[in-house]
From TrEMBL, chain A:
GO terms for biological process: iron-sulfur cluster assembly. The gene is LOC112273898. WD repeats lie at residues 25-68, 78-110, 122-155, 167-198, 217-249, 324-358. This is Probable cytosolic iron-sulfur protein assembly protein CIAO1 homolog. The lineage of its organism: Eukaryota, Viridiplantae, Streptophyta, Embryophyta, Bryophyta. Pfam families: WD40. SMART domains: WD40. It comes from the Eukaryota. GO terms for cellular component: cytosolic [4Fe-4S] assembly targeting complex.
Automatic annotation (TrEMBL), chain B:
This is Essential protein Yae1 N-terminal domain-containing protein. Belongs to the LTO1 family. PANTHER family: GEO13458P1, ORAL CANCER OVEREXPRESSED 1. It comes from the Eukaryota. It comes from Physcomitrium patens. Residues 33-71 form the Essential protein Yae1 N-terminal domain. It holds the Pfam family Yae1_N.
Length: 365, 151
């Protein structure tokens, strides 16, 4: 919660974009696994979750710019889990905060009248829940676990949740689930090196795996830790223990009856040679189109699509900033602000949440 | 050339029959031993195989039987009170019932055996969640709990 002076940035910026540290948010007593910006008006609230079994809510005092060091800890949500909280996710209207925990439960907090209250805990997974995600309409929740399954829950009136489907397919620990930004298409990434795309068939809770992105051919050759869609959802980036980022064309309509290539998501590009440790998190900004990555070498990297060489069917990306020692340990999560194209939050094994401001010319802003 | 005794023996051909059995003694004993061992192994293998088959068959039957028992109870409840469970729960119980009936219990070589079982298990956990119950049956196969993960 102390204001910290901006650290000098490393001299690897190729386009004059760099990261300035806005503030270090201290308080968690163990590694911080995830951060999530509250998705509405101004988004002056950030949630973080940790190995200390709590969720912390940080708020920016109104009246000043969110890129000034005026963030304070507004609340500590504890007593809902008795093991690590691995990820949190806000509902699209910002009224609910779901938490995924190693205690095999999912917690639900309601944020109303400036207060947080714990309203539900649901069980179902057999062991550690790794991720939780809301669909764009806020009507469905997805969770995944080390038990290799992906569960889809429906949000019912009165904040009731009912399990719709238990999806098997992955052969190992499922690390993350993520919904398409506008369609009810679910993506899951796993220790089994694949990414699975799940869609609903027909109209009766019938979810199935529409496609698996993975070897042979293209895909990752080791654990896929995270995925992120661009603003429109026609492209997706995934990151892996294999030290690469993969860019995928996710525009194909998977519900189409065609079995040919036109109804499949395709591999577009591989970004390799920039990371030398596992990439744990990747996030594609819906505002400035930049891709941020957090890795096991304590660095945050920012990539941009190359302006030149924009041939049909091929894309290339370049590194525009490598910020070394972003944390003093692994960077577990990076998240772009949903409204302010210059803000980025990160979470590290060092137990600290950091807020960054991108300085320099932004490509699409 | 005054070479090794073995070499000389080879060159002299049939005259060395009397030494053949000595020279090949180790070989013939190996042969004999192999045949004996193989024969005994096949017998023992059959016995073990039968035991494993029995055990696996029993466990599978036990699990399927457990599911069947659960479905019977749920159906009995619904007969008494058709609104006892939500529409979604009822739909899933019906599907589960059907999947159970279609399970290839009689054919151990059926390729669908494992996939169908996984599907049944998932469906069962879904129903448990919908009915808000947690059943911890001893015979139920559990996910490997070797070590709680740390990341």
């Amino acid at each position: 919660m102390d204001a910290t002076a901006a650290l000098p940035t490393s001299p690897s910026a190729t386009k004059g974009v760099s990261l300035r540290l806005v503030q270090e948010l201290e308080g968690h007593e163990d590694r911080v696994w995830g951060v999530a910006w509250r998705p509405c008006d101004g988004s002056s609230i950030l949630a973080s979750c940790s190995g200390d079994q709590t969720v912390r809510i940080w708020e920016h005092s109104s009246g000043s710019s969110p890129s000034s060091a005026a963030w304070v800890c507004k609340a500590v949500l504890d007593s809902s889990h008795n093991r690590t909280v691995r990820q949190i996710s806000w509902s699209p209207n910002g009224n609910l905060l779901a938490s995924a925990s190693f205690d095999a439960t999912i917690g639900m907090w309601e944020y109303v009248g400036n207060e947080f209250s714990f309203i539900a805990s649901f069980e179902g997974h057999e062991n550690e829940v790794k991720s939780v995600a809301w669909n764009s309409a806020g009507t469905l929740l997805a969770t995944c676990s080390r038990d290799k399954s992906v569960w889809i829950w429906e949000v019912l009136p009165g904040h009731e949740f009912e399990c719709v489907s238990v999806l098997n397919g992955h052969t190992q620990d499922v690390k993350m689930v993520l919904w398409h930004p506008s369609l009810d298409i679910l993506v899951s990434t796993s220790y089994d090196n694949t990414i699975k795309i799940w869609t609903e068939e027909g109209d009766g809770d019938d979810w199935h795996c529409a496609q698996t992105l993975g070897p042979p051919g293209s895909g990752h050759t080791s654990t896929v830790w995270a995925a992120s869609f661009n603003a429109t959802g026609d492209c997706m980036v995934t990151c892996s223990d294999d030290l690469t980022l993969n860019i995928w064309d996710s525009s194909a309509d998977l519900s189409s009856a065609n079995d040919d290539d036109s109804a499949k998501w395709k591999h577009l590009a591989t970004i390799s040679g920039y990371h030398d440790r596992t990439i744990y998190s990747v996030n594609w900004s819906s505002l400035n189109d930049l891709i941020a990555s957090g890795a096991g070498d304590d660095c945050i990297r920012i990539f941009s699509k190359s302006q030149d060489g924009d041939q049909e069917g091929s894309q290339s990306y370049e590194l525009v900033q490598k910020h070394e020692k972003a944390h003093t340990a692994d960077v577990n999560c990076v998240q772009w602000h949903p409204k302010n194209p210059r803000l980025l939050a990160s979470a590290g094994d060092d137990g600290i949440v950091k807020i960054w401001e991108v300085v320099g010319d932004l490509p699409h802003v | 050339m005054a070479g090794m005794p073995g070499l000389e023996i080879q060159r002299r051909g049939e005259e060395e029959d009397i030494f053949d059995s000595t020279v090949h003694l180790e070989g013939s004993h190996f042969e004999q031993g192999f045949q004996d061992g193989f024969r005994d192994g096949v017998e023992l293998g059959k016995v073990e195989g039968r035991e494993v088959g029995l055990k696996t068959g029993f466990e599978l039957g036990e699990e399927i039987g457990f599911f069947r028992g659960c479905v019977n109870i749920w159906n009995a409840v619904l007969q008494k009170d058709p609104s006892a469970f939500s529409a979604r729960a009822q739909r899933n119980i019906r599907v589960f019932d059907q999947q159970l009936n279609n399970y290839p219990l009689k054919d151990p070589q059926d390729e669908r055996l494992q996939d169908s079982l996984d599907s049944l298990r998932s469906k069962f956990r879904l129903i448990m969640s919908l009915l808000s119950i947690q059943l911890d049956y001893q015979g139920l196969a559990k996910v490997d709990h070797t070590e709680d993960s740390l990341f």
